[in-house]
User: What shape does this take?
Amino acid sequence: MKHSTLESLALPVLALAGGLGLFGLFIWFDGHDPVQAWSLLFIGAFGDAFSLQNTLQRAAPLMLTALCVALPARAGLTVIGGEGALVLGGLACAALPYAMPLPTGAAGTLLLLLAAAAAGAAWIALAGWLRQWRGVNETISSLLLGYIAIALFKHIVEGPLRDPASLNKPSTLPLEDSLRIGTMGTWDVHWGLVWGVLLCIVAGLWLLATTHGFATRVVGGNPRAAQLVGLPAGRLIITACALGGACAGLAGGIEVAAVHTSANASLIVGLGYTGILVSFVARHQPLAIVPVAILFGGFLAAGSLLQRRMGLPDASVQVLMGFCFVFILASEALRGRLGQLFVLRQPMPAVAGAPT
Amino acid sequence: MTGMPWLDVLVAVLGGAIRVGTPFLFVSLGECITEKAGRINLGLEGVLVFSAMAGFGASYLSGQWWLGVLAAGCSGALIALLHGLVSSLPRVNDIAAGIAIMLLGGGLAFYLGKPLIQPQAAQIPAIPLGAWLGAEPQGAVGSALAINALFPIGVALALALAWALKNTGWGLTVRMVGDSADAARAQGTSVNGVRVAATTAGGFIAGLGGASLSLYFPGSWNEALSSGQGLIAVALVIFARWHPVRCLWAALLFGGAGALGPALQSVGVTGYYHLFNAVPYVLTLAILVWACSPRRSLQGAPAELGVSH
Assistant: This one.
């Protein structure tokens, strides 16, 4: 294996180990046993068939929300508004039956998911377009759009589209049975997982094997070169945003059609924010997103076990993810130097001139 | 109540501009110093949540509100210091570091703040400005003009910062690092050192905004306490064109926008509650669209800043 490939694998693994280590230290200060927490994290995530199914169920939307960060990132944008696209995707999925009669079965489900993807695509493309049109920082605008999307969602779910029968928890009308997404055979995992894995592979192929994907990477990697060879940077950037948004919207649609059966507040649990971390750990590589999403889906699944067995607060997993995020970023500083630090033990080459 | 609902709304919005705007003021001043030195700290959202929790906890345990305020400032500085250090590493982008700190600050605050959700802590006292002016203390005008004791401190801080950035050697150093890192290096100034110091100082100031949230308005600790105020402040600094005194006006404008929803609800307009709560976000976005331009960098923007390209 090439040295750089080895390093690309070793850095995130070391960073995640660092995050887990610091998390252990943190709860140890709080009077808990870190070894028990670490083992519960892995038992709760991958310990038996039940927890593995739970993990995969949670990993499915994370793959899609991570793509919402990864695809714009490859075009050079830091978009973090996946939560908004997810929420609107879920809303569009639940709202479509109000707007038009749907065919029953798979054709109807496909229409629902298309509506979800379109809603998400429009929302994130808006952030990309604002950047191209007015130079508005897309990180800030996408996050603001996320808050606006959640407000719209709550307004519509609790107002115009509310199911009168949903008393304590305002919801839209539940989707008809034949439109719902079922589980895969005897497995208790819904088909959303297949969508997630498939789209990660398609996105990976798009970036690596198509001219359009290559052009997008050039725009993201070297805007000057893109300008020199006359690439339509604006269009490529907005397309990448729309594709990413479509993935996050689809995640929302799948959550509604497979898990919640109607749009309600259960959809807003921060899957979009966790997707940001997943994409950063995977270094915005669509194929790497699949295993990373499964790992973090596992940590989310294990969170309730940490609460029940050790009495840790429900925010423990968020603390763990925060530590992992900081370590992942810090690990970038070691890129290109890992071999020298751990393997070769050579003296560092002298740095000429002023530090940069 | 004055008997005239629209007047009630107006008074409530004006009072709310100060009540809701005080956290905006502190966070935007904190962000202003950070950005003057050439870095964006999106992590101030995490700083705000964490300092609100720490301030509430310290005030609850000690029974002294000023200890709570101090703890909020110091804990805010600590979280911001982490952002400053991580962003100083080679190849680490300050925006990405901000996202990480946002997540981490929130997580730590929710974890450590779990036992603090129920109790009541000693609150920051109010200055009864309305009563001094002769209004009934419990009336609409009197309660709208009961002012958070931190607010005058924030106003003084805005003036002091504007003066210091313009007239002191320290201010010049911060601006030089923000406008031309190369010039600063040529002078022998440590660019990362100044940026870490500015980020930490900004975190302390933003922490005071956190104290204002948990110890004055809404005046309790819960996990939904801050929903994007720290982030809005980042946009607010752009709107204020990186000038501390303009941050004050911008904070009041946003405070007023934030107070609109509850004010309308109190006079019986309830159907659009969630939409009115989204007004500050829409306003922020509108201001960004209006203020930014793809062709030139913004007037007054520190040249090293990634936000205007």
In short: The mean pLDDT of chain A is 92. Residues 61-281 of chain A form one domain. Chain A touches chain B through 48 residues (CB under 8 Å).
